[in-house]
Amino acid sequence: MIRNPVKFDTMLQQIRTFLETECKPIEPLVDQTDEIPESVVQRMRDLGLFGHSIPEEYGGAGLTTEELARVNIEVSQVATAFRARFGGNTGIASESLVVDGTPEQKRKYLPLLASGEVTGCFALTEPEAGSDATALQTTAVRDGEYYEISGKKCFITNAPIANLFTVFARTDPQAKGAAGITAFLIERGTPGLSTPPAYRKLGQHGSPVGEVILERVRVHESAIIGAKEGQGFRTAMKALNKQRINLAGLCVGPALRLITEMVRQARTRKQFGRPISEFQLVQQMIAESNTEAHAARALVLETARKRDDGVDVTLEASMCKLFASEMCGRVADRTVQVFGGGGYIADNVAERFYRDVRLFRLYEGTSQIHITNIAKRTMATLAV
Ligand SMILES: Cc1cc2nc3c(=O)[nH]c(=O)nc-3n(C[C@H](O)[C@H](O)[C@H](O)COP(=O)(O)OP(=O)(O)OC[C@H]3O[C@@H](n4cnc5c(N)ncnc54)[C@H](O)[C@@H]3O)c2cc1C
Fold it and tell me: What does the mean pLDDT of the chain come to?
């Protein structure tokens, strides 16, 4: 649902100009230094990028699912690290609060997340609880009105720079699986919470990812999202369901960018006395990539519209994430192929995006986990 097409187009145009003039030119710098300059982060705040999905009453733009999907397709046409800087706040780092937070929690934190004054993160994964997130071992032990939280989270996007942590911990040690998990909001500076330096990683340089160490972190019961114990996993799933559509949009953007880069390269690179764009086998890589990117875009926008209409899109969101992330991987691979040896050499757009987009098939549910879920839901819904 696009609420006000004229206003929305103006906003998209403003975002495109920012990306083209202020982000794209520094993509190699961000890759090399593993850092986004603070002046660019400030411009993101000024443009309201941190608050897109947060309701207007809390200072955000309150974008619909379709509007957010369209924005995601735009903002991911430059190096993925740029979007990752504000993406937590417009995605999983605020969504738990938006869907299940108490009015006091929303009033306290959402305006800070929307303005970008505070950076949030979503700390679910643990060393022994990845695809099976319900196996998490972090504990929260009640002590009067307080809880003492101990455990270790790993692979958490923006943990090294976050000020606000959504931490999932087990409040009921007897309960198995999803039951007995509670979501807590913990501010940086709370004694016992620490974040080691960011990992070195394959791609997405400039997007810090790291661990969260929790050593008897004492928090008041008012830090429980929704003020109710045992609801944490349900909250996480609600946030992740929407995030899967967001992420699928974030896979379409790089594919569209790479198709442009492929065409540019194919037109300018000459072999056998003519541009390689004249060879049908090169054309095939371009044609297949463009077709698949359009199919993913259509699926993402259709699913977003259904969600805006109130339809349960759990199955479709999983399909979006699976198809778009796998599609993006294929497009990045073909781009390296079209660039030839140059596409394998560092500091090349094909090489950078090839490394960056590899993550999409791994986080927020690996492809295997989505395939498993899609199969289960498909068979459950088809009574044949
Ligand atoms: C850069 C980065 C950023 C991340 N950001 C966050 C974040 O902000 N917050 C957060 O909470 N987490 C985050 N994650 C964690 C991410 O969601 C997990 O890495 C992911 O869920 C997979 O878990 P795992 O790495 O433990 O792999 P594993 O679960 O150990 O999986 C290993 C392999 O086994 C396969 N496998 C596992 N179970 C099954 C099964 N039942 N059937 C078939 N195959 C299976 C997987 O598909 C995979 O191929 C991030 C990860 C990375 C790398």
Answer: 97
CA distances 271 to 144, 205, 275, 350, Å, are 75, 33, 6, 19
232 close to 183: Cβ distance less than 8 angstroms: yes
User: Which atom of ligand 1 is the closest one to the Cα of 124?
Assistant: 11
Number of domains composing the chain:
3
Residue 155 in contact with ligand 1 by CB distance below 6 A: yes
CATH number, residue 69: 1.10.540.10
Residues 40 and 88 in one domain: yes
Q: Would you say the CB of residue 124 lies under 6 angstroms from ligand 1?
A: yes
**Structural domain for 37, as ranges:** 5-115
61 CA to middle of ligand 1, Å?
A: 31
| Domain boundary pick from 115, 138, 153 | 115
Report the DSSP beta bridge partners of residue 149. Answer: 140, 217
User: Of 115, 144, 162, which closes a domain?
Assistant: 115
The answer on 106 and 25 residing in a single domain is yes
Nearest to 85 by CA among 49, 47, 123: 49
* 353 Cα: distance to centroid of ligand 1 (angstroms): 21
Closest CA to ligand 1's atom 16 = 363
| Mutational test site, ligand 1, from 131, 161, 373, max ligand atoms within 8 Å of CB | 131
Residue 210 belongs to domain with CATH number: 2.40.110.10
Is residue 177 predicted with pLDDT exceeding 90? no
Position 249: which residue type? G
* Whether 268 and 343 share a structural domain: yes
Do 132 and 207 belong together in one domain? yes
Does the beta carbon of 134 lie inside 6 Å of ligand 1? no
pLDDT of 1 reads 92
Residue 382 confidence (pLDDT) above 90:
no
Write down the pLDDT at residue 241: 87
- Computed from CA positions of residues 99, 102, 107, 110, in that sequence, does the dihedral angle turn out positive or negative? negative
Alpha carbon of residue 242 to chain centroid: 10
Of the candidates 66, 74, 211, 364, the residue annotated as catalytic is 364
Catalytic residue check, 364: yes
Q: pLDDT of 234-247, one tens digit each?
A: 999 999 988 999 99
